[in-house]
Design a protein that fits this description.
This protein folds into two domains: 15-201 and 215-219 and 275-494, Up-down Bundle (Growth Hormone, Chain: A), CATH 1.20.1250; 220-274, no CATH class. It is 79% helix and 0% strand. The protein contains 19 helices and no strands. Helix 3 (53-81) runs antiparallel to helix 18 (414-450). The longest helix is centred in the last third of the chain and has 39 residues, at 457-495. It is globular.
């Protein structure tokens, strides 16, 4: 269970905590922005490098692929041997990959750079959660995760805006390169601040024995099995004709689970713990929170991708104007996430459920704005208003579910647990992007064929409506899980003699 808050846990951040959060959240923003910034840069990359659709798919999804593959092993390594060196090493790889991407002479080198960038992001991201879980408690932890959720949402929402600004300012040829090269100086600054402000962390429980065990403590068999299962699950949504890998993913996933159970059963004799303790999935708070964030994040980036294509190709917005449409939502996300984080202990489950309902309402609003702006009944800028409403749901769900998910996770296992959750989220994003964008382009192709091949704003709007319907299904399931969790917690509290309306921390678990 989460340690009881100290007397100062309700106070503001200390100077050391503020410095730590600054170091942690800067690269986190870069990592999440890299998922969405490419959306507005793809047309420029296609023209400048002569990239094929397959090349563009790898540029878009290759980052997510390698990001998701290394998360759990990197998180576990940080738990065992210290998070600071893993954090700094990950940022260094991220900077190197960004330079390779920004200076790429052809699509092959661009793909290599994106893959390397994904590895770096996958190494440092679970350390962020590990640091927060270890060094923050009580309301301060909620506030820290509030800022974490804010940065996640801002990274996804601000990517198209920053990409549009760079392409509009530098021109297509250097603009798309700037979307990658801008990561280098910011990443180097994060490395410097990390070296100065992140003190070497105290080794986690059992780390001395793990150090003697060497690489065996990382559970390399489990790491390879989980990595192979993740690759097999995501590649079919990137490379056509590889659907058979889905069966391999199921077999590898089952093998990984059986292996982890075996390692756990022999832990007392060998002294080596599994990479992921199977008991983690029996904690309702973690499993439910991971499911909520995975389902929501599976399709949230697709909303921005669909909106960018609709505005640029359907309504002939510039990349900069398309990016500006996300600005109100980014502001809402920035303001509301810390507010939600500070109230998780009192209203946590209710905030997730409310966020799900608001998200569904925002999709209806976005559908209406897309259809009516295409028919010239509404201003296209009403899209920005619908995205701002959507940002409310992002702030409530991503911030609150993150705190609740980690509520029963101990500090010595925070990196691995965070890696598991983020792996599920990145896999969900790859799957969601593939399904939603596939439905969008399939509907668009049919509409254009019916209109003698002439693209139109109306055709793009209809395609966007179909895509948003799929997003709505995903978010409806998220909302149903949140409501079921709220009922479960109230029944548990009544059984324990605790009023569900009190502000006790138990209500947030």
């Amino acid at each position: 269970m989460t340690p009881a808050p100290s007397p100062t846990s309700a106070a503001a951040f200390t100077a050391g905590q503020r410095r730590m959060l600054t170091v942690l959240l800067i690269p986190l923003f870069l990592a999440l922005m890299s998922v969405s910034v490419v959306n507005v840069a793809l047309p420029a990359i296609e023209r400048d490098l002569g990239a094929s659709p397959a090349d563009l798919q790898w540029v878009l999804s290759g980052y997510t692929l390698t990001f998701g593959v290394v998360l759990v092993a990197a998180g576990r390594a940080g738990d065992l041997w210290g998070r600071r060196p893993l954090f700094l090493a990950g940022i260094s790889l991220y900077v190197l990959g960004s330079l390779v991407s920004g200076l790429a002479p052809n699509p092959v080198w661009l793909t290599i750079g994106r893959l390397l960038t994904g590895v770096g992001a996958g190494v440092f991201n679970p350390q962020v959660i590990g640091f927060i879980q270890t060094h923050f408690t009580g309301r301060v932890r909620g506030r820290a995760y509030g800022l974490f959720g804010m940065v996640v949402g801002l990274g996804v929402a601000a990517g198209p805006l920053l990409g549009g600004v760079l392409i509009g300012t530098l021109g297509p040829a250097w603009g798309w390169r700037g979307t990658f090269l801008m990561n280098a100086p910011v990443g180097l600054l994060a490395i410097l601040m990390g070296a100065l402000w992140l003190a070497p962390d105290t080794r986690a429980r059992g780390a001395a024995a793990s150090a003697r065990a060497g690489l065996a403590a990382l559970d390399p068999v489990g790491a390879v099995l989980l990595g192979a299962a993740s690759v097999s699950l995501m590649v079919p949504f990137i490379v056509p004709g590889t659907g058979w890998l889905l069966a391999a993913a199921a077999v590898l996933g089952a093998a990984w689970w059986l292996w982890e159970r075996r390692v756990k059963a022999t832990e007392a004799r060998t002294g080596v713990a599994p990479m992921v303790d199977p008991a983690l999935f029996r904690r309702a708070s973690f499993t439910i929170g991971a499911a909520e964030t995975t389902l929501f994040l599976a399709t949230m980036p697709a909303v921005f991708a669909v909106t960018a294509v609709f505005l640029q190709q359907g309504l002939e917005f510039t990349a900069l104007a398309s990016g500006l449409a996300t600005l109100p939502g980014a502001a809402v996300q920035a303001g509301l996430s810390p507010w939600a984080g500070a109230r998780v202990q009192r209203h946590g489950p209710r905030l997730v459920a409310l966020g799900g309902v608001v998200g569904l309402v925002s999709l209806v609003l976005l559908w209406q704005t897309v259809e009516r702006s295409a028919a010239e009944q509404w201003s296209p800028w009403t899209v920005a208003g619908a995205l701002a409403v959507m940002a409310v749901s992002q702030a409530l769900i991503l911030t609150t579910a993150q705190v609740l998910m980690m509520d029963d996770v101990q500090g010595h296992e925070a990196g691995a647990a965070g890696g598991v959750a983020q792996t599920a989220q990145r896999t969900g994003t790859a799957l969601g992007l593939s399904v939603v964008m596939g439905a969008f382009y399939g509907t668009l192709g049919s509409a254009e064929a019916a209109a003698s091949g002439t693209p139109s704003a109306v055709a793009h709007a209809h395609a966007a409506s179909v895509a948003l319907l799929l997003v709505g299904v995903s978010w409806a399931v998220t909302t149903a899980i949140a409501l079921a969790d709220l009922v479960r917690r109230r029944r548990r509290d009544r059984a324990a003699g605790v009023s569900a309306g009190t502000g006790r921390a138990a209500d947030a678990r």
